[in-house]
Amino acid sequence: MQQSVRRWATGAVLGVSIVALSGCGTLFHPERKGQLSGQIDPVVAVANGVGLLFFIVPGVIAYAVDFSNGTIYLPSNNSASVDVLHLDGALDVASLEKLLSDKAGQPVSLESELVKIEEMTNLEEALAMVRMSGVLDEERLATM
Predict the structure, then answer these.
(1) Quick one: which of 128, 15, 123 has its CA closest to 69?
(2) Residue 47's closest CA among 81, 30, 75, 22?
(3) 20 to 30 A Cα–Cα from 39, which one of 17, 92, 93, 96?
(4) pTM value surpassing 0.70
(5) What is the per-residue pLDDT for 135?
(6) Is the Cβ–Cβ distance between 7 and 39 less than 8 Å?
(7) What percentage of the chain carries pLDDT values higher than 90?
(8) How far apart are CA 46 and CA 105, in angstroms?
C-alpha cells in the first residue's frame, strides 16, 4: 500500500515538474509564440502557478518560458495575417511589384533597402516572421 502511494506521488511530482519546466503555455498553445503583449491567459497562469505549489523553481521557470515566448498572452483581435498567393510560373520584378501593390492597396517597390524577401517553408513560419516584424506594434501599443 505505502509503496504504491509513494510510486504515485513520485509520478505526479515528476509529471508536474516536466510540464512546469517546459512552460504550460508553450505546450498548450504553441501557435501563440511570438506575441509581444496582451491580456494574460488565466488558464496558462494558473497551470504555471501549480508548479509554484510543488517547487518554486519549476514554477518560476514555467513563467519565464511562457513570458519569453509570449505564449502566456491571449491572442489579440488585431493580429497580423498572411495572404497566400500561388504564383503560376516565374514573375519578373515589375509583375511582382504590381501584384503586391494591388494586394496592399499602395505602391510597393522591391528595390527599397527596407524590403526583405524570404522564402518560407510553411504558413506557421511565415506568421511568426510577420509577428516578429512588428507590423501592428503601433496599434497594439495604442490599446495598452
Answers:
(1) 128
(2) 22
(3) 17
(4) no
(5) 61
(6) no
(7) 0
(8) 44
Q: What is the pLDDT of residue 95?
A: 82
What is the separation of C-alpha 101 from the centre of its chain, rounded to a whole number of angstroms?
28
Tens digit of each residue's pLDDT (9 = 90 or more) over 29-57? 777 777 777 788 888 888 888 777 777 77
What are the C-alpha distances in Å from 25 to residues 3, 15, 98? Answer: 34, 16, 41
Q: Which of 30, 128, 18 is nearest to 62 (CA)?
A: 18
Helix (H) or strand (E) holding 136: none
Q: 122, 126, 99: which is closest to 110 by C-alpha?
A: 99
The pLDDT assigned to 81 comes to 53
Q: CA of 40: how far to CAs of 6, 24, 61, 66, 114, in Å? A: 36, 13, 17, 10, 33
Q: For the chain, how far is it from start to end, CA to CA, in angstroms?
A: 55
Residue position matching grid coordinates 513560419: 125
- DSSP character string of 25-92: HHHH-GGGTT----PBPHHHHHHHHHHHHH-HHHHHHHHHHHHHHTTTBPPPTT----------S---
